[in-house]
């Protein structure tokens, strides 16, 4: 393995092992969209799997600790209360029926296959934000409070994430994306960076000053700060609150942590 761990990464890896009874196996994967991503071990898996990009920089240490935070939050919950969100073909077909006209309105010449392809991209993107942002907020707060040595890398990582989010304010994306999809995404981005910016002492939201997402984003941020229970069950309750607020409740469903597709544990 070619990752140079800095403190406190080794101790966090050990904490995961103690909390879950399983090590983390590091597997290089060139095609990852980020430097590191974990696959949490289920009962029949010998280890958690941390995929990582062979070409990375020191920021990977922050991302590894962040991914470990997801594991720790999940395994601190009793096994019979662990839930994970998912989507399937039936759910996506219902979503397609709901927003098909919005997609056609952008370009009436799109084929059925092209519409389905765009829907898949937008649906997956929104659900990724919805199910990750609430726990990510709490994990980043945990990192900031508990591991001051990681703060410079954390700031680099958050600024990179912010740059990617700000693409949603660009004219090409505005022209290409149905307003409902774009506005919902921007509300979640604004909420995430508003909460964390205030927490870590950074102004992440100045470029949202003229965005129409601000009012709803402030409302969602206020709801999140006031009502969050800081644990796995609280994560899932807040995901449901965000989904209700954003009218995305029917865009995903919940299932048991161990109820995963065949082959989940294979690399």
Summarize the structure.
This protein has 267 residues and is mainly alpha-helical. It has helices at residues 9-20, 60-75, 89-106, 112-146, 151-165, 171-176, 179-200, 214-227, 232-245; strands at 24-28, 36-39, 48-52, 83-86, 253-256.
Question: Could you characterize the architecture of this molecule?
Answer:
With 267 residues, the chain is mainly α. Helices cover 57% and strands 8% of the residues. It contains nine helices and five strands. The strands form two sheets. It has a three-stranded mixed sheet. It has a two-stranded antiparallel ribbon with strand order 4-5. The longest helix is centred in the middle third of the chain and has 35 residues. It is globular.
β-strand percent reads 5-15%
Strand order of the largest sheet: 1-3-2
Kindly state the percentage of residues in helix: 55-70%
What is the tally of beta strands? 5
List its traits.
single chain, 267 residues, mainly alpha, 3-stranded mixed β-sheet, two-stranded antiparallel sheet, 9 helices
Could you outline the blueprint of secondary structure elements for this entry?
Elements: H1 9-20, E1 24-28, E2 36-39, E3 48-52, H2 60-75, E4 83-86, H3 89-106, H4 112-146, H5 151-165, H6 171-176, H7 179-200, H8 214-227, H9 232-245, E5 253-256
Parallel strand pairs: 1-3
Antiparallel strand pairs: 2-3, 4-5
């Amino acid at each position: 393995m070619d990752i140079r761990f800095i403190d406190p990464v080794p101790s966090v890896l050990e904490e995961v092992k103690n909390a879950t009874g399983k090590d983390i196996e590091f597997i290089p994967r060139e095609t990852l969209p980020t430097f590191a991503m974990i696959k949490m071990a289920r009962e029949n898996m010998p280890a958690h799997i941390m995929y990582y990009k062979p070409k990375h920089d020191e920021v990977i240490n922050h991302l590894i600790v962040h991914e470990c935070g997801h594991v720790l939050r999940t395994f601190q919950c009793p096994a019979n209360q662990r839930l994970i969100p998912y989507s399937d073909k039936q759910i996506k077909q219902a979503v397609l029926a709901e927003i098909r006209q919005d997609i056609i309105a952008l370009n009436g010449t799109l084929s059925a296959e092209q519409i389905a392809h765009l829907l898949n991209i937008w649906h997956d993107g929104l659900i990724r934000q919805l199910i990750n942002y609430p726990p990510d907020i709490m994990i980043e707060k945990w990192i900031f409070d508990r591991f001051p040595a990681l703060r410079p890398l954390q700031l680099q990582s958050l600024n990179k994430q912010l740059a990617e989010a700000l693409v949603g304010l660009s004219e090409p994306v505005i022209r290409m994306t149905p307003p409902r999809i774009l506005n919902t995404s921007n509300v979640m981005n604004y909420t995430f960076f508003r909460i964390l910016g205030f927490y870590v002492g950074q102004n992440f939201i100045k470029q949202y000053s003229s965005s129409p997402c601000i009012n709803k984003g402030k409302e969602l941020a206020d709801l999140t700060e006031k009502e969050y229970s800081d644990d796995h069950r609280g994560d899932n309750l807040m995901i449901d609150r965000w989904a209700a607020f954003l009218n995305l409740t029917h865009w995903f469903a919940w299932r048991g942590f161990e109820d995963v597709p065949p082959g989940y544990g294979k690399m």
